């Protein structure tokens, strides 16, 4: 029984983390990530 | 259970998440630029790989932290926390291409090295330092004269980026070659060292340096999906601990920060005392030792 409660709590935590993720995406972070990921990253390659 | 299930999943996921074939063809633009690049994959996978269909979570985290106007990275941290809370380092064992590459290199028939515990223990902490300093601290605090920060981990250390982004882009893109200099040589040296080390030590980058593995390890003890140990059926033969290439004894620490949830120990246990699961299927006899 106790274990089921703890699993429910974990599911709530996962949902809360996802909510933060959605909040971040809507406040413009997804576009920052996209801009970086859709351009060849000089630092990843090792160009000064 | 399919015998090579994990390898199939690892390779399948690696191919799927780097499935932009056009990026590898002559004359094509060398990067996928579609909408999927808004989203991170769960493992370390460079977004500059010509085939990459998603973003790298560690690169994405640094991208937000290095913004001119500092902001809290809700998007990437929320995502990483959700993945960590769900499965912890299961991602390392099953869904990371760079982890798979190291495993394959370990199959090269060279003499194998067991790092003495006195060196191994402190070295394992290094990945947390990499996460704190190169991924979070310096990208957040340091600013160039133009006002933006630098992704220190990508720039100075990440061998996955050098391989998937650097090597492929340089091979496919003539225009990049004249620009190669000391930094590229340094990054190649780190990559070659990791490759050589992986042939003698099992997953050395994952054990000692990877900031993503370090992040997910923080959730090992609380994640929903976890490893369960039934002490009532364990005969104490020790086969599980002997089989673990990450140096974990799953009898005493089934959810150790170093466990990549590969399940190899479960395969060798003659009495099935170890299993993965969430609480739902737990029998009353079962114990969880964390
Ligand atoms: S260099 Fe490494 S951390 Fe940076 S985006 Fe590429 S794989 Fe990710
Ligand atoms: S530790 Fe890092 S490189 Fe290794 S499998 Fe995990 S995410 Fe991938
Ligand atoms: S304890 Fe088992 S599941 Fe964890 S890393 Fe070792 S062999 Fe893999």
- Give the low-confidence spans of chain A: none
Rg measurement of chain B, Å: 20 Å
Q: What general form of chain B does the structure show?
A: globular
Instruction: Calculate the mean pLDDT score of chain B and round it.
Output: 94
Give a short account of the largest sheet of chain B.
Answer: 2 strands, antiparallel
Main β-sheet of chain A: number of strands, strand sense, barrel status? none
How many helical elements of chain A?
2
Number of domains of chain B: 2
**Could you list the spans of chain B in which at least 5 consecutive residues all have pLDDT below 50?**
280-290
Count of β-strands of chain B: 2
Q: What is the number of helical segments of chain B per DSSP (H or I, 4+ residues)?
A: 14
Using brief descriptors, characterize the structure shown.
heterodimer, A: 48 residues, mainly alpha, 2 helices, B: 290 residues, Alpha-Beta Plaits, 2 domains, two-stranded antiparallel ribbon, 14 helices, globular, binds iron/sulfur cluster
Entry summary:
The complex is a heterodimer of chains A (about 50) and B (about 290). Chain A is mostly helical.
Itemize the secondary structure elements and their pairings.
The complex is a heterodimer of chains A (about 50) and B (about 290).
Chain A: H1 2-37, H2 42-45
Chain B: H1 5-17, H2 57-65, H3 74-87, H4 90-94, H5 97-106, H6 117-124, H7 126-141, H8 152-156, H9 159-172, H10 182-200, H11 204-208, H12 211-217, E1 226-229, H13 239-243, H14 264-268, E2 274-277
Antiparallel strand pairs in B: 1-2
Helix pairs in contact in B: 2-7, 5-10, 7-12, 9-10
The structure holds iron/sulfur cluster (3 copies).
């Amino acid at each position: 029984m106790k274990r089921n409660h703890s699993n429910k709590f974990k599911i709530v935590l996962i949902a809360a983390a996802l909510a933060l993720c959605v909040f971040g995406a809507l406040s413009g972070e997804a576009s920052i990530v996209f801009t970086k990921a859709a351009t060849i990253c000089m630092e990843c390659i090792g160009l000064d | 259970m399919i015998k090579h299930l994990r390898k199939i999943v690892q390779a399948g996921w690696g191919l799927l998440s780097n499935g932009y074939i056009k990026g590898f063809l002559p004359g094509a633009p060398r990067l996928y630029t579609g909408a999927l690049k808004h989203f991170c994959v769960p493992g370390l996978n460079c977004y500059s790989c010509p085939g990459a269909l998603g973003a790298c979570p560690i690169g994405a985290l640094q991208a937000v932290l290095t913004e001119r106007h500092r902001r809290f990275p809700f998007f990437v941290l929320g995502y990483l926390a959700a993945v960590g809370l769900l499965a912890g380092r299961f991602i390392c064992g099953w869904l990371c291409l760079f982890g798979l590459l190291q495993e394959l290199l370990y199959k090269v028939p060279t003499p194998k090295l067991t790092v003495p515990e006195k060196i191994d223990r402190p070295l394992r902490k290094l990945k947390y330092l990499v996460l704190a300093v190169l991924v979070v601290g310096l990208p957040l605090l340091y600013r160039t004269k133009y006002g933006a920060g630098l992704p220190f981990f990508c720039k100075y250390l990440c061998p996955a980026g050098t391989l998937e982004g650097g090597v492929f882009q340089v091979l496919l893109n003539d225009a990049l070659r004249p620009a190669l200099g000391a930094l590229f040589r340094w990054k190649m040296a780190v990559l070659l060292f990791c490759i050589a080390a992986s042939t003698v030590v099992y997953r050395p980058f994952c054990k000692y340096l990877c900031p993503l593995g370090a992040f997910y390890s923080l959730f090992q003890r609380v994640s929903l999906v976890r490893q369960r140990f039934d002490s009532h059926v364990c005969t104490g033969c020790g086969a599980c601990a002997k089989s673990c290439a990450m140096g974990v004894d799953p009898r005493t620490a089934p959810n150790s920060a170093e466990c990549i949830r590969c399940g190899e120990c479960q395969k060798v246990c003659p009495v099935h005392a170890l299993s993965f699961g969430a609480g739902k299927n737990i029998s009353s006899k079962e114990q969880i030792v964390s």
